[in-house]
Amino acid sequence: PGYFTGEHMQLVAMFADQAVVAVENARLFEAEQRRLHNAEFLYHASHDLINSADLDDALYTALTHLVNILPFDQARIGLLDDTQSVWNIRVSYPADCPPQRGKALHTDDYPLVARLVQTCETVYVPDTRDEPLWTPDPPGEREIRTWIGVPLVAHDRLIGLLSLYSFVPHRFTPEQVGTVRLFANLAAAVLENFRLLDEASRRNQTLSALNTVLAASNEALAARDDVLQVSLARVLDVLDLPGGAIHQLDESRKWLHLRAAVGLPDDIRARLDRVPAGGNTGALSLPAIQAGDR
User: Fold this and answer.
1) Does the pLDDT value for residue 294 go beyond 60?
2) If 171 and its partner were Cys, which of 78, 88, 96, 166 is the partner (CB 3.0–4.6 Å)?
């Protein structure tokens, strides 16, 4: 007894202070290493998403990057329809994990998803057994124990949802949830860019089609050909359709008279020569028309 002196206590205290500094430095170093690792992941994910010509392949590749830094077992990325009541799955990870791409899920069937759509905020469930609003998987499926749902927001508009699942409870740390949010922001931006590019492409196709029809009309006028017939043929070419017709409403507004037809057999043309304007063609059963018949 009485072995330790005040000097011993002072030395122990000094050592403890140094140990605290060393531990804190180690913690900060590990945090910085994780931050750099996450930054590298986001860089590679961003590169794959931006440079990919196929959106679904890009999203799946990005999820394969994400699984390297987050311990999830399944993931899904889906887009919401205009009513925000249907969640259409675009990508699942692993690829064979249900539901498959194209599956439409109604948000009302999943209260937590519905809450996310309402609040546009991340929902984290550490243990699904403790969450009364959790919707369990059908019998036979492996039980999900941890879930993260993150909104995909572009230009202040909710466009979709990212979900991560784990078979282990309390699987994710707050820092990892933050990483998922960063990934969701990146995915939302890329989804919006693809949507805008798709809209621009459709507009360009429409303008190109109009220019084609106008050019055909001018050519027909110059050659004194039937403008409607030539224009209809060019429209069908642009739309890749096998046949079609143009009718004109007469002065009585009761009858439609055939003015141009392309790709239609003679018997069908004869039956379409004059049809009631307010009704139908007598429920014509039109035969299949092959593109080569035009």
Assistant:
1) no
2) 166
